[in-house]
Write a structure and sequence with these properties.
Blueprint lengths: L3 H15 L4 E6 L20 E7 L2 E7 L9 E8 L4 E6 L10 E7 L4 E6 L7 E5 L17 H9 L6 H6 L9 H11 L12 H22 L32 E4 L4 E4 L1 H4 L16
Antiparallel strand pairs: 1-6, 2-3, 3-4, 4-8, 5-7, 6-7, 9-10
């Protein structure tokens, strides 16, 4: 799933391509993907795009309040969430085809169009059209992962959940998912089972440093891309999805804990004192 580095860099590229352009319209290609009905997408036709930003894992298209000339206060917003299999094509010149995996095509006067598409069997990518005073799904998000507010949570919080769970819970903190959670805990040399309440002060500072370092490195890689967001993401992850491969730090084999919906990758030598954690799907074989 695209996380903060992928979505932030994508927002920056789209902003450079589309900012100040009038919105020409949206062409829905997947019926269930539009999550709102009022206002209708037609209500923002003609509004100038102020900027493309990011909140958590959402792309946020901010439009001016008026279609007239001159500067205007913020107006309606259009959100896009790519979920697990959503991707973006920048179409220059704009197209009018109906691609097999299409979700919605966003058109801007005199600029490239933006095609949201989705791969895989799940259909969870979505888009929203919101009034200026409506936060929509953004209202359920926690603080940004790089914010001072979340840093205070790490330093002083007594949450008994696993840090890996907290990082993936968008209601607790916004922007990180499975991939960067694995890499962050590996960088911090913390077990996937470590709880926030169980961390000492040094561990908490080490975790904060790892969060900032890993996400900064990921963003630097993502900023090298051009155009939209390709099918393959996370090719620069250090440990996530690399179970069975050598740990880049110590050379030991990376291991995984598999759950029904996801898996966690870790290094026993660097993170768990040599202990191999029981795989949830092989728990009777691995102790």
């Amino acid at each position: 799933m695209p996380e903060l580095p992928e979505v932030q860099a994508l927002a920056e590229r789209l902003d450079a391509l589309l900012a100040t352009a009038p919105f020409e319209g949206a062409s829905p290609l997947q019926f269930s993907a539009l999550k709102t009905y009022d206002p209708a997408p037609e209500a923002i036709v003609g509004h100038r795009l102020g900027e493309v930003a990011r909140r958590g894992k959402f792309l946020v298209f901010e439009f001016a309040a008026s279609t007239g000339p001159g500067d205007h206060p913020p107006g309606p917003r259009l959100l896009v969430h790519l979920s697990q299999g959503g991707r973006i094509d920048v179409e220059d010149p704009p197209k009018a085809t109906r691609p097999k995996n299409g979700v919605v095509r966003l058109r801007f006067t005199g600029r490239p169009s933006v095609l949201v598409k989705e791969f895989g069997t799940e259909r969870k990518a979505g888009w929203w059209v919101l009034r200026p005073d409506d936060e929509g799904p953004l209202d359920r998000l926690g603080p940004e992962v790089l914010s001072d507010e979340f840093a205070d949570v790490i330093r002083t919080g007594d949450d008994t959940r696993r840090v890996h769970t907290i990082l993936r819970d968008q209601r607790s903190v916004a922007g990180v998912g499975r991939g960067y959670s694995d890499d962050i805990l590996h960088r911090a040399r913390l077990s996937p089972y470590a709880t926030l309440a169980g961390l000492c002060g040094d561990d908490r500072e080490q975790l904060l440093a790892a969060i900032h370092e890993v996400l900064a490195e990921g963003l630097a890689v993502e900023r090298r891309r051009t155009g939209g967001l390709p099918t393959k993401v996370g090719d620069h992850w250090v440990v996530h999805g690399r179970s069975g491969q050598p740990c880049p730090t110590c050379g030991a084999d990376l291991r995984r804990v598999s759950y029904e919906s996801h898996e966690v990758t870790y290094c026993p030598t660097c993170q768990t004192g040599g202990k191999v954690l029981a795989d949830r799907r092989l728990s009777r074989l691995v102790r």
